[in-house]
Every structure is written in C-alpha cells, then in structure tokens.
Design brief:
Helix content is 80%, strand content 0%. The protein is mostly helical. The chain has one domain (66-379): Na+/H+ antiporter like fold, CATH 1.20.1530.
Length: 380
Amino acid sequence: MYIDPSFLIQLGVVLISAKAMGELFTKFRQPSMLGEILAGVILGPFALGWVAATPGLETLAAIGILSMIFLIGLEFNIRSIFRMGATTFLVAAGGITLPIVMAVVLLPGEGALFIGAAMAATSIGVAARVLADMGRLKSEEGRLVTTAAVVDDIVGVIILAVITVATTAWAVAQMVLQTVAFLALIVFAAISFSYFWGYKALSIKRSIHESSLLPLFLGGCFLLAWLSTQIQLAAVVGAFTAGVFFSEIHDKKHVMQELKPFYEVFVPIFFFYIGMHVNLGAALGAGLAVVSLLAIAFLGKLVGSGLPALLSLPPRKSLVVGLAMVPRMELALAIVSAGLLVGKVDAALYSSFVIVVLVTLAASPWLIEKAYSFEIKKHL
C-alpha cells in the first residue's frame, strides 16, 4: 500500500497544531474548538500556506464531522421532548424563527437560508458546560435551556435537509415531510430497539464483546449517513439520526466513553479544516455582513428565546436563558459548511460566519457569568 509522504507530514502538522492550540485555549477556560479553528486559519492557504486542502484531509474531516454529529444525536434524550412544556416550546420556537427571519431580511442571496438554519442551532455542549461550572445546570433556567437547545438542533437538521436540495414550494413541502418521516421512523425504531436491548441485554453482551460496540455503532452511523444521501438528504442528517437511534440503549454511556478517543482525533481535523477555509481578507472586506451576522447571532436568541422565557422566569433568569442559547458550534458549522459545499454560501460569508461563531463562543460564557454575578450583588 502506497501512502503519500507529503500527506503524512500534513497530517502530523494538523493533529499536533490543532491539539496544541486547543489545549492552550482550554487553559484560558475557552472551548478547545477555538484553538483548533485558529490553527487552521494560521497554517491554511490564506495565511502561512503550510497545509493544503487535499482529498485525504477532506475525507478525514468528513469522518470528524459525521462522528461529531453522531455524538450529538447519541446525547439526545427523546423522552425530554415529550415532556416539554409550553414555555420551553416557545423558547425553542422563538430561537429558531427570529434568527431565520433576520437572516433572510439582512443577508442577500440563497446563502441567507443556510445562515438562518445555522443561527437557529444552539451549542448545547457549551451552554451546558457554562451552566454546570456555575452550578446552575439543574436549575429551572438550566433545564429550560438544555431542552430548548435540543429542539433547535433537530429543527436545524430538518431545515438543512430541505434547503440543500429543494428549489420550489412543492419540493420544500416534500423534503419537510420526507425528513420528518425519516426522523420519526428513527425515533420509533430507537424506542422499540431500547426495549429489545433492555430485555435481551444479557444474551447480547454474552455474544458481543463490549469493544465491538463502537465499531458497530460507527458502522451504523456511516451507513445511515450514506442512506440519507441516497434519499437526497445531507449526510449529517443520517449521522444525527443514527445517534438518536442508539441514544435509547442502556449501554450508550460505555459507547460514548469508547467514542471519546476517536472523537479527539478526527473532530479537531474537522475544525482545523474549517479554519483553513477562512479568508480573513474577504471577511474584513465584508464588514457589513459581519455586523449583520453578529446582530442575528445575539439578538436572534436574546429576543427570540429570552422574551418567551419571561412567561415562567424572572427577567434576570430570562436574560440568562437568552445568553445561554447564543453559542453556536458543531451543528452550525456543519450547516454552513454544507452551504459552502453546494455553492450557496460564498467564501466571504463563510469566513464571516466562522468569525462570528468564535465571538459567540468567547463572549457568551463571560456574559452569562456577568448576568449571574449582577443578580447575586443585587440580592446582597
């Protein structure tokens, strides 16, 4: 088997630089993703030019994004959606609708739909981590945020499936029905499979070694990703539904632990690959787009999710809900990357969006902390 030596050099540089920058940002209590993307920006073709976007690197980045979206689906709690109250529904609906409307109004071209779909998503991982660090994850506002963020991600996946291929009103209706039916089938199968797994767990564990679960689950992820492409859905839709399918089994915590080393290798490659496509010159030249994106990112969630939270929470906690819904990360970047791939998001808009994502990740934890500290001081 022949392996291109230059590819091995590039892969080594990508892994070491991405992890080193990620660890550096972690030291400053920032998401490692910030450092991994920045490494791609610095070493990519629009800056130092040390790493090129080769087909091999693109394939590894694709494995990274599919495994990342699979893990998001695996962490999904189906039953929490059925227990969702009216306020949670309105918080989720507002956080989806307003960013999409703002994107369509403020941004030109078809790329606005991809930006709107990406802005509808919320990074539940970042929001949960910040609230957990402050001991507020189990609070009323914490539970509201985590459930609403899951709904936002599901709707973001559905919108992505629709806008990637639909060009007419009838096509949109078909794609919505097709995607919802696909997801509903997976949810039904997941619940049914969870009961089967629960009853048969002992006999299954005797016949399947625990170390075999991860390859089986990842194999299912990649097969469902392929299946989704065959019915004109994005591959990430299949990866997400695969995660949802396996989210109901009793051994999912073991699988998530086994997935972590795989995730730690391939997902940084994806984020590095994202950074490689950021053209800072193009983004700076589109200053108005950056301002518009910042407005959509912050006001879309602060108003769209924060105002409905007032129905059951005091103003300060409602503000925290809005701020906790602001961070965008995995799914948002996946949606915009899909738009870039099909040619509906141009390089300048893509670069501007990635910059705004970095701003939301860096600013939101600090703003949430300030909101809580103000509340504490007020009560002293």
